[in-house]
Amino acid sequence: MTSNPRFLAGAAVLSVSLLAAGCAAAPTPAHRARAGGQADAALISAAQPAIAEANTAWPGAMRTRDAAAMAAPFAENGTLVTAGGKAINGRAAIERYYREAFQHAPPILDGEIVDDGIATSGNLVHVWGHGNYTVEHTPGQASSNSGYFLAVWQADAGGAWKIVRYLTF
């Protein structure tokens, strides 16, 4: 199999995002303090369960190559911007992107998403951080990779928090 580093870097940081149970790093009070104000803290608290769920689901979705699970945290009209600068618009297109990319990716052994910070802007919650993952290019030869991300979350009309923009670096 050939490796597509840009896909893997993007996939590694997908907070969906899309982590093994217990790997998600919940924002600390210091992170919340950066957001400022009770309204911001309430917005972050409202979004946090969806963020943690996406982070927790991510490693399993990567290992099982579950493109639907990778795309699930995205809004219907959400956008994924890959490390190479390609913009994929819409949850269905994001799912297709992952399905196709998984066909060329080596087995993913493990990974995690680490939220480094969180802040609000209007009705949006911005989460930034990094992802780490391990792939097996050939049997017995694992390699570690990492990348950075910025995820923008927004509540939909029904109150469910979804990713509206996701950028990988």
Could you characterize what this model shows?
It is a single chain. With 169 residues, the protein is of the alpha+beta class. It has helices at 5-12, 29-35, 38-64, 67-71, 91-102, and strands at residues 74-81, 87-89, 108-121, 124-138, 141-155, 161-168. It has a six-stranded mixed sheet with strand order 2-1-6-5-4-3. It is globular and about 50 Å long. The two termini are 24 Å apart.
Describe the global form: globular
Separation, N- and C-terminal Cα atoms: 24 Å
Rg, Cα atoms, Å:
15 Å
What string gives the helices and strands in order? HHHHEEHEEEE
Secondary structure class reads: alpha+beta
Portion of residues in beta strands equals 35-45%
Please work out how many helical segments DSSP would assign: 5
Largest sheet, strands/sense/barrel? 6 strands, mixed
Low-pLDDT stretches: 1-35
Mean pLDDT: 83
Order of strands in the sheet with the most strands? 2-1-6-5-4-3
Into which percent range does the helicity of residues fall?
25-40%
The total count of strands amounts to 6
List the helices and strands and how they pair.
Layout: H1 5-12, H2 29-35, H3 38-64, H4 67-71, E1 74-81, E2 87-89, H5 91-102, E3 108-121, E4 124-138, E5 141-155, E6 161-168
Parallel strand pairs: 1-6
Antiparallel strand pairs: 1-2, 3-4, 4-5, 5-6
Provide a quick synopsis of the model:
The protein has about 170 residues and is α+β, with helices and mostly antiparallel strands. It has five helices and six strands, in the order ααααββαββββ.
